[in-house]
């Protein structure tokens, strides 16, 4: 299992490759706000653990194992953003909150969050019911 930090890297690398077709050390460093030397170090570790193949002057590609987990990590991040949006968390808090919780939930919990998001999306009046509760709670404060 990748550590939280490895997960952040795999997630970013997967998104960069999806968006641009490639992931450069400098782009990864920028996306994660870390020093390029930290990226090089982590990329070497991810290579050793067979999540990607890194060739210094040719860039990096994800292995099938890296792609599979990358896809799940991006899904997990997006799902948690959806959850926070549905429950009415302020837009300005959503990204950082997801970064804070995403590594600490089991895949079981993620699947259950998926059910909950589906529950709201299948009938948007359910979001309306929630908003009504939230409106009342705010009035009472
Ligand atoms: Mn994330």
From TrEMBL:
Keyword terms, alphabetized: Activator, Cytoplasm, DNA-binding, Manganese, Metal-binding, Repressor, Transcription, Transcription regulation
Pfam family, one: Fe_dep_repress
Activity regulation, free text: DNA binding is strongly activated by Mn(2+).
Residues reported in the UniProt entry to bind Mn(2+) 1: 8, 99, 102-103
Subcellular location: Cytoplasm
This protein's record includes keyword Ribosomal protein: no
Annotated Gene Ontology cellular component terms: cytoplasm
Domain HTH dtxR-type residues, every copy: 1-63
UniProt keyword annotation of Ribosomal protein present: no
Superkingdom of the organism of origin: Bacteria
Gene Ontology MF terms: DNA binding; DNA-binding transcription factor activity; manganese ion binding; protein dimerization activity
Residues spanning the signal sequence: none
UniProt: Mn(2+) 2 binding residues: 11, 77, 99, 102
UniProt-listed GO biological process terms: intracellular manganese ion homeostasis
Function: Central regulator of manganese homeostasis.
Quaternary organization: Homodimer.
Family: Belongs to the DtxR/MntR family.
Name of the protein in question: HTH-type transcriptional regulator MntR
Taxonomic source organism: Cytobacillus firmus (Bacillus firmus)
